[in-house]
Design a protein that fits this description.
The protein is an alpha/beta fold and about 425 residues long. It is built from 12 helices and 15 strands. Helix 8 packs across helix 9 and helix 9 (about 325-340) runs antiparallel to helix 10 (about 355-370).
Length: about 425
């Protein structure tokens, strides 16, 4: 089998920009982390997690910089800056004018006074990618971190990066980008998964009824004049209203920062609205009084959702919280883990020891095992290859066919391409059915 480390080293010797693609667990992240000397890379007796031999890397001067931005965006933010502009300045070595010009072209200027951790995931990804480029590293790796960025801003960022750091080698891994014009300057490198490595299987898409309660009765979920604003910020939602019927899949769209994740957290009870009502079958409810009971929320960032000390307990917690009898809770947990292809030998592991793609699946298993009548998936296909994304798409369809209400937030063309959805879009604080005019 192809050794991804050797292939990547060879590629950057002849090309300044390389697009690394292939299925999950083919060694993409391991190769990108090692070549950028990222601290999260794990080495075992001279081999990576998948058994690939690690070729020697050329030692560089101590002041040579490398940058890696992975799907865990928060790892690429310093945590030292009080706002976005300070974060970018911290990485720009005094080149404030150049940084300001780049930020303006990427639409970051309106965010300058906001804290990095107040931003949406997509906005954080753009800030992290921009900050990494401003370091002018010898090698910059963007590892599936742009999958949560809307396509317009993502493509703009990629086109601008070469001008920011003309001597930087740019390495890109992404499960979504397939536009030849965007990748025109990149040398494509295809990696394959070693068939002998079956530690992390693909999602097989068994019938959804195998891991969920019996079909439930339909319900209507409605938002009525919902208003919400974060402290010291403009209103994110301003009189948003919509009616949703269980048994259907809704695709919630909108540009980065438009309020999609905020709306998800309001429905799940993580946040409270400033004004307005949430209704279930015409009756006012207060989701914050019992978070997750009516709407179970799959977080965009799985690390903010996972809290247990083992994989098994992470999924079991949902059915227990919903009052399932012990035998039913155990049964539902096992089937949800099987459905999301998380094998038995990983059930005793700490959730945060899993690779990102599996942590995302685990969070999804925990969400569906709860059995809430409404389920909201925030970027469920992040870090997933095409086969696994199609399986997650089939899961959403299966849930709707079983009578559950499903809301999907996604920028993924693979996730939403053939999904039978009803489109919703957040525009200027309002929810528009079938998208904005």
């Amino acid at each position: 089998m192809v050794n991804p480390h050797e292939v990547l080293l060879a590629a950057i010797q002849s090309h300044r920009q390389v697009f690394l693609h292939g299925p999950n667990f083919s060694g993409r992240s391991a190769a990108l982390q090692r070549i950028t000397r990222d601290a999260s890379f794990t080495e075992r007796n001279g081999r990576d997690l998948y058994g690939h031999l690690l070729p020697p890397l050329v030692d560089r001067a101590h002041d040579v910089r490398y940058a890696y931005v992975g799907p865990e965006i928060y790892h690429a933010l310093s945590g030292l800056a009080v706002n976005v502009r300070s974060e970018l300045l911290l990485h720009s070595f005094g080149r404030a004018a150049a940084m300001d010009r780049l930020a303006e072209r990427l639409g970051l200027t309106p965010l300058f006074d906001r804290g990095c951790y107040e931003l949406s995931g997509g906005q954080q990804a753009v800030v992290a990618g921009t900050a990494a480029a401003m370091l002018q590293p010898e090698i910059l790796a963007l590892d599936c971190c742009l999958e949560q960025v809307d396509s317009v801003r993502r493509d703009t960022l990629l086109k601008l990066l070469s001008g920011v750091a003309p001597k930087t080698s740019l390495l890109l891994a992404d499960n979504e980008i397939n536009d030849p014009s965007v990748l025109a300057d990149f040398r494509p490198v295809l990696l394959e998964r070693d068939p002998a490595n079956m530690q992390f299987p693909v999602i097989a898409s068994p019938p959804v009824s195998d891991c969920l309660p019996p079909r439930i009765e339909g319900s209507w979920l409605a938002l009525k004049n919902i208003t919400f604003a974060y402290p010291k910020s403009a209103r994110v939602l301003n009189g948003a209203s919509v009616e949703l019927q269980a048994g259907k899949v809704y695709w919630l769209r909108g540009s980065n920062g438009s309020g999609k994740t905020t709306l998800a957290k309001l429905l799940a009870g993580v946040l409270k609205p400033s004004a307005g009502e949430v209704l279930l079958d015409g009756r006012p409810i207060r989701p914050a009084n019992s978070p997750g009971e009516i709407v179970s929320y799959h977080f965009q960032n799985p690390d903010f959702q996972l809290f247990s000390t083992t994989v098994w307990d992470e999924v079991l917690a949902g059915p227990r919280a919903m009052g399932c009898p012990p035998d039913e809770a155990v049964k539902r947990t096992g089937r949800a883990l099987e459905h999301l292809a998380i094998p038995d030998d990983l059930h005793s592991m700490h959730p945060l020891d899993l690779p990102f793609a599996l942590r995302k699946r685990l969070a999804l298993a925990a969400t569906i095992a709860s059995g809430s009548r409404w389920m909201l998936f925030d970027e469920p296909s992040l870090g997933q290859d095409e086969q696994n994304t199609r399986s997650i798409r089939a899961l959403a369809d299966g849930l709707a066919n079983a009578g559950f209400g499903v809301i999907v937030i996604s920028h993924s063309r693979l996730m939403t391409g053939d999904l039978a959805t009803r489109a919703l879009e957040i525009c200027d604080g309002h929810i528009v059915v079938n998208g904005c005019d």
